[in-house]
Design goal:
By secondary structure, the chain is an alpha+beta fold. 57% of the residues lie in helices and 15% in strands. The chain is built from 12 helices and 10 strands. The protein is rod-shaped, with a radius of gyration of 62 Å.
């Protein structure tokens, strides 16, 4: 868990105090020790001179035993470690305390000159003082360690003061941060959570630093603006919902209008296609009822009536097939079809058709085309319809090209002719029922509608290529039935 702002600031402040006070403490301790040692050294020299002078004065009037008693009375006073008396020949006369026979001491004794220098003692640092006199020299060794200089208590006092100061500073900082920063920030956070929970107003704290008060005022202004924008957005959303509902209702009305229009076109086409044969049949029946016809004329009328009746029957069947569902058109099973077989069956079926006698049929099929979800018989029905329409457009003379290929798991079939093409006015309505470019009595206008239903039932598409020049081109695209042991591929037939 990440530490809070208050703890982070206190840790940073503690680190800064450590970096600032610890070196200061050691500097003060070192300076104090050095200063006290210097003062002790100066005092030791003065004390040594006094002791040496007193002993020099007593040498002339006291015996060696009395002189030793005098030396013993001085050792231990103010850190005096030992006292030694030498004569002019540097021979020891009397000595009390640990003796120091350093070469430097004897050298100064022989030269009868005053000197002082540091040396170690059994208690720590010490100072040796050589004082010459008329009768010889006196050597005094004094302690200068911290126990004598009393530097340790002063250093501890400085350390205690530094620690107490740092602790008080951290405590004061803790309460200051709590009062002026952390508490107002917590209040702002709780107020923001209340707004997030649905409150409509941000209650900012009234205490704290100037910056936090300004921040709270800015947050309150921002909250009020966001609430106002939210209200405006809700109004817009409600307006959009009302508009959407209106559009949906309008769409329903348009769909209903389109359905009515489709029903009207279907009724008009049906009335036209069925009405003419019925009118002819009724006329011929009236003539036969009136009598006076020869046997040949009666037979001719009956033949015509049968032909018109068969035409009406064909129209009704195609209309019923157009009205059937997609599942009924392609079957409810999972039967697949072969493009290659369907094309060859179509060509074989139409080879003896009277309208295809002078039409040249060209095939351009990519080998090993994958299967399609449309049964072969249904694909034959589609191709027969397209080829017959192409032959009629070419007036029985010209060329029809059927090409097929596969690319990106899509099987494409093209049916092209060299006829006059399809006008843009008819192209958009070509797949609607009872729309035909043939003369009256030559077609019902339901064939392409049925073909479109068959193709769409298997999620395919059929369309007229508007960019094709030199005739008409119908493009059929069907999804390929994938096989695990067969790689789908091939060129786009429109590129060949």
């Amino acid at each position: 868990m990440k530490p809070g702002l208050r703890l982070q600031i206190l840790l940073l402040l503690g680190a800064l105090l450590t970096l600032a006070l610890v070196p200061l403490f050691f500097a003060v301790a070192t300076y104090t020790s050095v200063a006290l040692t210097e003062l002790r050294t100066v005092g030791a020299r003065s004390l040594g001179r006094a002791v040496a002078s007193h002993i020099s004065d007593a040498r002339g009037v006291r015996s060696p035993a009395a002189l030793v008693e005098l030396l013993e009375s001085q050792v231990g006073i103010d850190g005096v470690e030992s006292l030694t008396v030498y004569d002019r020949a540097a021979k020891r006369v009397a000595s009390v305390g640990p003796q120091a026979t350093l070469p430097r001491i004897l050298d100064h004794v022989r030269r009868s000159e005053e000197a002082s220098f540091s040396l170690p003692t059994r208690h720590g640092a010490g100072l040796a003082i050589v004082l010459p006199s008329d009768h010889g020299s006196v050597v005094a060794i004094l302690r200068t360690d911290t126990a004598v200089t009393r530097a340790a208590p002063l250093v501890r006092l400085v350390g205690l003061y530094t620690s107490v100061f740092a602790l008080l500073l951290l405590i004061v900082s803790y309460f200051a941060l709590t009062r002026f920063i952390v508490r107002p920030v917590d209040q702002l956070s709780r107020a923001a959570r209340r707004v997030a929970g649905g409150a409509r107003r941000l209650d900012v704290p009234e205490t704290g630093s100037r910056e936090l008060l300004e921040l709270g005022a800015s947050l309150r202004t921002m909250t009020e603006r966001l609430i106002a924008e939210e209200e405006a957005l809700r109004k817009k959303v409600a307006e959009v919902e009302r508009t959407t509902a209106t559009l949906q209702q309008t769409q329903k009305n348009l769909v209903q209008s389109e359905r009515l229009a489709s029903v009207g076109r279907l009724s008009a086409g049906l009335a036209h296609e069925v009405g003419n044969p019925i009118a002819a049949i009724l006329g011929m029946q009236d003539l036969m009822l009136d009598g006076g016809l020869t046997a040949g004329e009666s037979r001719d009328f009956l033949t015509r009536m049968r032909k018109d009746t068969e035409r009406i029957n064909t129209i009704i069947k195609e209309l019923l097939q157009f009205a059937r569902s997609s599942d009924e058109l392609v079957g409810k099973g999972n039967e697949s079809g072969s493009v290659e077989i369907a094309v060859h069956e179509t060509v074989t079926l139409l080879r003896s058709h009277e309208g295809m006698a002078e039409v040249e049929v060209t095939l351009d099929l990519y080998p090993d085309l994958p299967a399609i979800p449309l049964p072969t018989a249904q694909l034959v029905q589609v191709l027969v319809n397209l080829m017959l329409n192409a032959a009629d457009a070419c007036d029985g003379q010209g060329e029809i090209r059927i090409a097929a290929g596969c690319q990106s798991d899509i099987v494409t079939i093209l049916v092209e002719d060299t006829g006059p093409g399809i006008s843009p006015e008819v192209r958009d309505l070509l797949f609607e029922p009872f729309v035909t470019t043939k003369d009256v009595g030559d077609g019902t206008g339901l064939g392409l509608s049925v073909c479109a239903g068959l193709i769409k039932a298997v999620r395919g598409t059929i369309e007229v290529d508007p960019d094709y020049q030199g005739g008409a081109r119908f493009r059929i695209e069907l999804p390929a039935v994938r096989s695990d042991d067969k790689q789908l591929g091939g060129p786009d037939p429109s590129s060949s």
